[in-house]
Each structure stands twice: as structure tokens, then as C-alpha cells.
């Protein structure tokens, strides 16, 4: 869930930083090395008498992650939530497995209170060629625990996204 309005790129690094392993109280590591987006669903309910819009674009401007560049948007006028259920087009690079990078996977524009549901496939490194540290440090994480981050990859204290209740957000 988005706790503040957000308009920006969600990178492959952000997606791989969703599920982390805490090797120390401050240094979390990605649990997986590759990610593929199957589907992005977004809901947003406006306040009475107002309108809210949600937007997803698989833009992928970086070589190796190009998307279809289609503009997916929906607007609600207070009767029912704005809702999107979109996926990158088949055989675009955005629909294939990607390593952690700062390349844009998709652009997301949502209001505060929007709910974002991702359907992702992950691959782990079966031969353990090394681990990849998350892009941002944790504060006081439990050593040896699995933790979750919001879509922006930031620690819980500064993230604009919350993870589902019951999961350890670090």
C-alpha cells in the first residue's frame, strides 16, 4: 500500500530488494538474483466528490529492459476504485527475467492509499556465486531474519510503501 502519492520508476533493483535476508542489523542482502514481472494490479479509491487516477507504463528506456511503452491508466470518480491489471507484452524484454539494475522496469503513478499487487517470478543463485547487498541499509534489523521492503527499495522509516500486515518490514 502506498502511504503517500508516488510518481516514478520502479527498477529491477527495487523489485529484487522486496525480499531480503538480514546478515547484520544494517546490511540486508537480496534473497534472489533475477526477477520477472507477470502482472501489476493497482487500486485507488478517491474521496467522495473527487477523482483519482492510476498509471502504469512498461517504459524500460534502458537497453536490455525495454517495454512496450503503452500508457495504462484508469480514473475513478468516486463510484468505484480506479483499477488496473496490466502485464508487459509477451516477448518484450520487460517480460523476461532481469538481473538487479537501476534500469526502469515500469513507471508507476499512484495517489496516497493506493494498493499495488505484483505478480512476480524470482530465480535464486543455485551455485552461490556471491550475494548482492540491498541498495539501502536497514536500521536495527534482526540478524538472520527475512525482511520485506516497499516498492521504492527504501528502509521502513523512509519508504512510501508498506508491506502486507504480518510481514517483517525492514
Name some characteristics of this structure.
mainly beta, 4-stranded antiparallel beta sheet, 170 residues, Jelly Rolls, 1 helix, single chain
What is this structure's SSE topology?
Elements (H helix, E strand, L loop, with lengths): L5 E6 H5 L2 E4 L5 E3 L3 E11 L7 E6 L13 E6 L5 E5 L11 E2 L4 E7 L4 E9 L22 E3 L22
Antiparallel strand pairs: 1-9, 2-3, 2-11, 4-7, 4-8, 4-10, 5-6, 5-9
CATH topology of the domain at 6-19 and 32-128: Jelly Rolls
Biggest β-sheet: strands ordered side by side in the sheet: 1-9-5-6
Content of β-strand = 35-45%
Order of helices and strands: EHEEEEEEEEEE
Helical residues, percent: under 10%
Distance between the termini: 15 Å
SS elements, strand count:
11
Largest sheet: 4 strands, antiparallel
Number of helices: 1
- Helix and strand composition category: mainly beta
By CATH, the superfamily of the domain at 6-19 and 32-128 comes out as Satellite virus coat domain
- CATH architectural label of the domain at 6-19 and 32-128: Sandwich
User: What is the top-level CATH class of the domain at 6-19 and 32-128?
Assistant: Mainly Beta
Low-confidence stretches: none
Overall geometric form: globular
Radius of gyration: 16 Å
Average pLDDT level = 88
Describe this entry's structure for a reader.
This protein has one helix at residues 12-16; strands spanning 6-11, 19-22, 28-30, 34-44, 52-57, 71-76, 82-86, 98-99, 104-110, 115-123, 146-148. With 170 residues, it is mainly β. It has a domain at 6-19 and 32-128: Satellite virus coat domain (Jelly Rolls). Strands 1-9-5-6 form a four-stranded antiparallel β-sheet. Strands 4, 7, 8 and 10 form a four-stranded antiparallel β-sheet that branches. Strands 3-2-11 form a three-stranded antiparallel β-sheet, with no helix packed on it. The two termini are 15 Å apart. The model has no long low-confidence stretch (mean pLDDT 88).
Amino acid at each position: 500500500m502506498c502511504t503517500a502519492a508516488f510518481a516514478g520508476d520502479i527498477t529491477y533493483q527495487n523489485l529484487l530488494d522486496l525480499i531480503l535476508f538480514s546478515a547484520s542489523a544494517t546490511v540486508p542482502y537480496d534473497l534472489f538474483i533475477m526477477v520477472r514481472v507477470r502482472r501489476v494490479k493497482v487500486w485507488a479509491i478517491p474521496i467522495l466528490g473527487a477523482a483519482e487516477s492510476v498509471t502504469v507504463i512498461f517504459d524500460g528506456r534502458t537497453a536490455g529492459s525495454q517495454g512496450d511503452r503503452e500508457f495504462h491508466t484508469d480514473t475513478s470518480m468516486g463510484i468505484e476504485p480506479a483499477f488496473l491489471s496490466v502485464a508487459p507484452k509477451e516477448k518484450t524484454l520487460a517480460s523476461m527475467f532481469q538481473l538487479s539494475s537501476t534500469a526502469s522496469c515500469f513507471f508507476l503513478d499512484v495517489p496516497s492509499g493506493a494498493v499495488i499487487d505484483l505478480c512476480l517470478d524470482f530465480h535464486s543463485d543455485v551455485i552461490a556465486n556471491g550475494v548482492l547487498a540491498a541498495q539501502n541499509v536497514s536500521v536495527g534489523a534482526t540478524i538472520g531474519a527475512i525482511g520485506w521492503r516497499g516498492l521504492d527499495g527504501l528502509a521502513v522509516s523512509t519508504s512510501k510503501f508498506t508491506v502486507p500486515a504480518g510481514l517483517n518490514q525492514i
